[in-house]
């Protein structure tokens, strides 16, 4: 079984963190590809659009590699429908996966993402996927993606504080791939369940591949 994680942005350290999370959860073969033609980070629709051509250009190589499932490793699910339409195998986004997982955990959930500019795309995705009625709140931490990727203790404290300030006891979906590596430290600071889209996508991708007969 081969699961391919494509990072739509050009930051290699984010790809490496995604792969590390995925490999800790499955025995499937994991590959992580970085879109070197994309922007350094994706914080809103404009950057997302700039990233899509580079991801689409890698789909032939994904077929040649033998990917059983492709995961778009950006919480905006950058270009998801266009990529699905051209890919040889199923494609899921980490945002989509996180929403599915959160709705299995509780009647309602919250989302904490990076910056305000990221909110409209995520809100549109929630509505398009049918999850908007289940979302109790969509919040921005005010921490840029590349700061989240740094993984510093100061960043973890700021993110934990933003989640506390948002209130509620519902599960909180971590709305950025750069938050994935922060999950253990956040969980130690917060009482509510946290949903990491990279972890959710890994487990769902593995299940999907098995349903399709991948060994």
From TrEMBL:
This is HyuE hydantoin racemase. One of its GO terms (molecular function) is amino-acid racemase activity. InterPro entries: Asp/Glu/hydantoin_racemase (IPR015942), Hydantoin_racemase-like (IPR052186), Iso_Racemase_Enz_sf (IPR053714). PANTHER family: PROTEIN DCG1 (PTHR28047). Belongs to the HyuE racemase family. Gene3D superfamilies: 3.40.50.12500.
